């Protein structure tokens, strides 16, 4: 006979902490305010030099559901892995210590998993910046509701690379052998990619996470440094290897064009003033990851598709000039229409780039880029 009442699932929450004494209280309060109350949290103090570790211990003394592990600084991935080893629960979640949860976040995610039987559930997020909460349009597009899906049903979901807007079933996490890469930044993407490829998932349109945008945080600092770019290439390489091992040509094409290329524009902006070593690393990564399929086919904005093609061709001076010109524009780049064919393309001033040295596909605009 079916039981009339069943115990709520135990959720294990891993909170890595480093140098967040000004934010940790807000984070923990948002966990305590969850409408799903059956959880245990492990705060992993990753060698903080401020009061973060003390604040964590104060919270542990107030609530028996919270425990603290202190370790020498080893980075975000290692701290998360330490937390997984210490936390209990038949479900698993990750919460960054400078962010906060809306009250029903875990109830929404766990409720979806209860109804669907999927391996993980993911919800939308808002950016919390200058006191305002804004849902990125691309996150809204990715999070059209879906239940018990596989990656072939929505390959674009691989662009939802974040660790912290998700809840996993613990047995599925362990069966897939998941963990977070250690010793590199941008560690979220390889693991979330594998999770979507290996299992079934639910997509929720509810906002389940408030991502605080603050200067100097790990995810917001993008230095034009060789180490930063090396880490980015390393994690992209890991994710792409998993996608290729999955064996779906359709998923790989969407991943390479629309997901893997998605943040490259940020790096193209750093070309003016970069060192020769950084330029060589940028180009080698572009050729390695998109050598089979030029960035002109990617989902990047038109100017950055052009920049990608110029990087492929080792035309640093032209990328430099193009990015400096783009920085002066107040809106979209100018466009022109070919009189003979009617095709639309970018229109770049001759003082910036000699368009006769560029193939038409590197300048071409797509239908949705023409209107307006």
UniProtKB/TrEMBL annotation:
Pfam families: Glycos_transf_2 (PF00535)
Domain called Glycosyltransferase 2-like: residue spans: 13-151
InterPro entries: Glyco_trans_2-like, Nucleotide-diphossugar_trans
Residues spanning the signal sequence: none
PANTHER family xrefs: GLYCOSYLTRANSFERASE, UDP-GLCNAC:BETAGAL BETA-1,3-N-ACETYLGLUCOSAMINYLTRANSFERASE-LIKE PROTEIN 1
Protein name: Glycosyltransferase family 2 protein
Origin species: Nocardioides zeicaulis
Source species taxonomy: Bacteria, Bacillati, Actinomycetota, Actinomycetes, Propionibacteriales
